[in-house]
Design a protein that fits this description.
This protein is mainly β. The chain has a single domain, classed as Lipoprotein localisation LolA/LolB/LppX (outer membrane lipoprotein receptor (LolB), chain A, Clam), CATH 2.50.20. The protein is built from 7 helices and 26 strands. The chain has a 16-stranded mixed β-sheet that branches. A two-stranded antiparallel sheet has the order 3-4.
């Protein structure tokens, strides 16, 4: 039976995998147990479960990973409505002649993961590109810290990231399409409130549904108090000084699907990544603690679990002749197709930058954040490491930044954050 069918039959991942892939104790024959920390002293027992960069950071720079039990309830691995739509719409997706995901009738996708039992690398990336955060709309209040090789925080930023999907909607009315923008895939913006010299700086991406077309990219430049349009393919530059994150890197699928190519599955196997226990409910603003590096500020305190099966996919930037990246290698959790790791390679084929993040259901004991009728599911923090310079950018989702609150599935986000008028208004505050 295909993996997804086995999971869908009961909602329990344990039906699809043998016991040795559902428990870190069984996998390591008791050498590492739930509740333990993976450190330089014991990492050799799980070296094969890590991409080389995290392994090196554990061995050389004191990075640590706390181990949680493997999540087996599939409804805790994505937003509830997204998972329900994946189940109800399974088998209804195809690629059209232009390489876009459509229904059998040739219309835009209707919601959920179009390829829950992926047979190819492009199917995995198509699902990721269609819905980054798996919510119809989301605003993430965030804090960013750039740590230099000496372990000092060289830059600190704060702001917000917004996404809204006009198609494939599973929570917001009208469903599945917002008629006035049915030809669009996504509206996405990011703005900054700190530090003062970048306050009001913002960027707006407007994605066409056609994945052969570059998004429109607008920016509000606080220094000049005006909006300018940026080159459509200017996606491999840091958004702000000191950071290691490019627009192209967003959710490992920051560019239209068909501007990359040569998608291929290059591996499968168990993996360690953060899928639960990463929401810091104890902090009033959900902020996370750090450790490692020369000043104990380089890495997030992270919780990981044994993923029974990850699918490893490589892709190349075929529409970017001047890209500093020659390819990317991305790890997808086979249970829910969420991205759990990425490494990009420079033009010489050498490892360039590494990305690993953590997700969680925002529920712990009596504490929970609600997204409609169900607890909120989302990313919690992200670590971006420039392997060649030694810089690390840490990003975390927090509750609030200067009155801008993290929220999901709110249609009013469009007027607040996702128009040129919104950029100007944000820049003036």
């Amino acid at each position: 039976m295909p993996t997804w069918e086995a999971i869908a039959a009961s909602g329990d991942v344990s039906r699809a995998y043998p016991e040795e892939l559902l428990s870190i104790e069984n996998y390591t024959k008791g050498r590492i147990k739930t509740g333990d920390e993976i450190t330089a002293a014991n990492v050799e027992h799980v070296k094969s479960l890590l991409e080389p960069i995290r392994y090196e950071q554990i061995v050389k720079y004191g990075r640590r990973l706390k181990v949680a039990p493997t999540t087996t309830d599939v409804m805790r691995l994505s937003p509830w409505e997204y998972t329900e739509a994946t189940l109800s719409n399974a088998g209804k997706a195809r690629f059209d002649a232009a390489g876009n995901v459509v229904t059998a009738e040739g219309k835009p996708w209707i919601g959920g993961n179009p390829f829950p039992d992926p047979k190819s690398g492009i199917e995995l990336f198509a699902a990721q590109t269609l819905s980054w955060g798996r919510h119809d709309a989301a605003f993430y209040a965030l804090k960013i810290s750039d740590v230099n090789p000496g372990g000092d925080v060289a830059f600190r930023y704060a702001g917000g990231w917004t996404e809204l999907s006009p198609v494939a909607r599973v929570s917001l009315d009208p469903k599945p399409y917002w008629p006035m923008h049915q030809d669009k895939l996504r509206f996405q913006s990011v703005f900054f409130t700190l530090p003062q010299q970048f306050r009001g700086t913002s960027f707006l991406n407007i994605w066409d549904y056609d994945q052969n077309t570059f998004p429109l990219l607008y920016g509000y430049v606080a220094e000049f108090r005006r909006i300018r349009q940026f080159p459509a393919d200017q996606r491999f530059e840091p958004l702000l000084p000191g950071t290691t994150l490019f627009l192209s890197d967003a959710w490992a699928a920051g560019d239209p699907l068909n501007t990359w190519g040569n998608y291929r599955i290059v591996g499968r196997g168990p993996f360690l990544a953060g899928l639960s226990g990463s929401w810091n409910a104890d902090h009033p603003n959900w902020e996370h603690n750090t450790h490692g590096g020369p000043r104990n500020q380089t890495f997030w305190d992270s919780t990981v679990e044994l993923i029974p099966e990850a699918i490893v996919v490589e892709a190349e930037p075929v529409r970017f002749p001047r890209a500093p990246v020659s390819k990317k290698r991305v790890w997808f959790d086979a249970r829910n197709q969420v991205v759990v790791g990425m490494v990009t390679y420079d033009r010489r084929g050498e490892p360039y930058r590494s990305f690993d993040g953590a997700y969680s259901l925002y529920e712990r004991g009596a504490s929970k954040v609600m997204d409609g009728k169900h607890p909120y599911w989302s990313w919690c923090h992200l670590t971006c490491s420039d392997i060649q310079t030694g810089r690390v950018t840490r990003i975390e989702q927090v509750r609030s930044i200067e009155g801008h609150n993290t929220v999901a599935n709110d249609q009013s986000l469009y007027d607040k954050y996702l128009t040129q008028a919104a950029l100007i208004r944000l820049g003036a505050t």
